Amino acid sequence: MKAGEWRRWLAAGTGVGIEVHGDRLEVMLVRVRPWGVEVAGALAIERFRERPAAEWGAEYAAFLRRHGAAHLAAVVLLPRHELIVRHLSLPGVSAKDLAAAVQFQLDGLHPYAEEEAVHGWARTLDGSGVLVAMARAELIDRYAAWFAEAGIRVAAFTFSAAVLHAAARILTTPPEGGFLAFEEGPAGLEAYGESAARPVFSAVFDLEPERAAALARAELRLGEESAVRRLWDLLPLPVAVPEGLDLGGRALVYATAMTAACPWLALKANLLPEELRASSSRAIYIPTLVLAVLLAGSLAVLVAYGRIEDRRYLAALEQEIARWTPEAAQVRELETKLEELRARRREIYEFRLRARADLDALLELTRLLEPPTWLTSLQLSRSAVQLAGETTRGPELVELLDRSPLFRASQFTTPMTRVTGGESFAIRAEREALVLEKAQ
What we know:
With 440 residues, this protein is α+β, with helices and mostly antiparallel strands. Helix content is 41%, strand content 27%. The strands form four sheets. Strands 3-2-1-4-8 form a five-stranded mixed β-sheet. The protein starts with a helix and ends with a helix.
């Protein structure tokens, strides 16, 4: 089973994602299943930075209660322009040494003092390296205090590259050969892309779209013919959406909610301090675990049944082979004897043709060499005839033999000499290969 297939069958859960979108909080609740994603609801909390936290926290709590999801802890997507995101290639580093290798490189990835920086990292799902995000500790503390004051339980602070990298692989597979996607955000054009040269690329551009696309393509080593996609093109489209809900501009919060619903399929790059992380009620996973156990049992039964059937089929096949092996040997023996009989028949037939051809040759010579021509010797082979004798007709003999359909290329083998009553001669002529042609 391919990686994308087993990931699809593990995709089951309900999650809530929150995107910090300028002065607005975008909230989305989704249910992920192997056959698709259902958007249960969405909420936009305006001017959250200006309003009392308890006020918009109550709006959020009411939204979750309406959808029966008050037990869920949210995954919060922080603004991309407030973070530093890097992809580290660490070939050959084992899993147990990965944390030390990342920690060794962290100081060179950000401009902050060691005590001022917070980071989160995770190995990419395709194993190409490690995705790292860094932010000021003051920024993380401020967001954590806001959500705590609002009474919102938060499981993770994450970033766009992590959620897009994971969400694009939960139910779908990313486009092959590399890609580049853009989404308009409060700080400019947010870009995400992948290629062989840059396994993960994430940036925010305060430029015209054409200029931003050119710079991003150069970073990804993509040709100018590569089409610029939308972030929605990387994600599985929802199979159900509440009536009247516009999903435009909500690709990032949608991807965040997907990773919140399936945390085991997401990148665990969490910038929220561990002591502040909340978790969803474990009871919600009981149906999923039961279904997973039943599915695993069914798959095991199918695999075992298939193997048992294969063994039964192989045993039956071997039994049939053993049953028919003697008959097959007899058939082969009969075929060998039949081929021998055919060969003997061909030999007899060819012998008869040769004997008949020899008699025809003798009869033709008797007809051609009429008195006053006498033969003193005659040698007949398969391919030639040699004649010796006396005649008064001289050179006419060669012409007579060549005009016959049974002989050709007649010639004197010795000069003719005069004897009493005429001349002596010796002639050799080739025979036409009629025997072999007829035998074919």
